[in-house]
Amino acid sequence: MKKKLMLAGFALALGAGYTLTAFSQVKPEILVKQRQAAMTLQGKYAGPLGGMAAGKVPYNADTVAFNASMLDALSRMPWDGFAESTKGVTVKTAALPAIWSEPAKFKEAQDNFQKAVQALVAVSRGGDEAAQKSAIGAVGKACGACHQDFREKQN
Amino acid sequence: MKKKLMLAGFALALGAGYTLTAFSQVKPEILVKQRQAAMTLQGKYAGPLGGMAAGKVPYNADTVAFNASMLDALSRMPWDGFAESTKGVTVKTAALPAIWSEPAKFKEAQDNFQKAVQALVAVSRGGDEAAQKSAIGAVGKACGACHQDFREKQN
What is the interface pTM, i.e. ipTM, of the complex? Predict the structure, then answer.
């Protein structure tokens, strides 16, 4: 088992005092799988909140708090998976070239999403349904803004 | 967009005062995809720690703390994906029938894993490398014990 994980000093600003270390030797296909897994799970936990904000799903404060805390972690997970090494990967991905040609803009979109999630986490600890639904809307907007610029249109 | 998410009262004991709500109407294939995504990401964050504990990767306290916090969230994510509805699913899965025939034992394996992760999170806040490596070993053991009984052998 030759699993070489080189812990390079590739720190991302995470807004939480953590240093995220990238594993520059992880195969590009694995990086893609991992970042897609993070997006899949963001959908799992954001989806029901979106349903609540839209009035399609009954409001549940416990679910808002739990899902917000899961999104807090998940909002930090995909980004190191968009390594340069994954640019020409042959596995199916909806990642657009702008991710690598406009890194500052991509980083800004990540930060906006993380800030929106942090704001949701903060209000999820109180019981103000309206404030929570507004914060959920902001998270959804941040998701959409990033997808607009950096993900292939879905059909 | 007809995305019906029925928030049923299917609470899992999460050990953190949260109520996890399952979406009984989510398609089995999606549930499988989501639980596999959680396992993929557990591997992403546990792998390097295992490497450190084994002395194959340089020890890094920040990485231990960050990865432990990611595992804290991830250790809560897969289980509602093993819904009864996924038993006969046609997509590829390594889930063994024992998951549904021995639910108490499966639950115990989940709890052991979550407890091991909690213990790692606790020691990851101090700087004791030996204690952290020992806690990492316990997490790996809990992963392996569950896989032994509930996952098809990997080749």
Answer: 0.84
